[in-house]
Design brief:
This protein is mainly alpha-helical and 128 residues long. Helix content is 78%, strand content 0%. It has one domain.
Length: 128
């Protein structure tokens, strides 16, 4: 790679930056509003509560990994960005399809739509 970044690399770095923002939002806001109350809930059976807590931790790690993969895709090898874009697209699709399937509103659970710009930036970066 030469010293300057092309438009594709810039788009992938933008996807990385946005993924990092969503990771921080998840950890900070989700930690305060969801994970903390979940962890201390006595209304749920311990195995249900602890499984949900573990899944929240998995998502935290996956969002951090998504950021790293986009950076590696921009600077090292596009294959990393392919994986990151596929993962972002999967999060997007799950968020769009599952919310109405469980009888919820997008206004209450909009998280899937956060991955629309990340996925678009990833695709843009891969095809430029």
């Amino acid at each position: 790679m030469s010293g300057s970044l092309g438009l594709g690399e810039v788009a992938l770095l933008m996807a990385a930056a946005l993924s990092a923002v969503w990771c921080v939002v998840h950890v900070v806001m989700g930690g305060r509003d969801v994970a903390g109350p979940l962890r201390h809930s006595s209304a749920l059976e311990p195995i249900v509560r602890d499984t949900a807590w573990l899944c929240w931790q998995y998502v935290s790690g996956t969002l951090a990994l998504l950021t790293v993969l986009f950076v590696l895709g921009a600077l090292i090898a596009r294959q990393y960005a392919e994986v990151a874009t596929a993962l972002s697209g999967l999060f997007l699709m799950i968020g769009i399809l599952v919310v109405p399937a469980i009888g919820q509103r997008y206004g209450a659970l909009p998280q899937g739509f956060l991955f629309l710009p990340v996925t678009v930036l990833g695709l843009t970066g891969l095809f430029l």
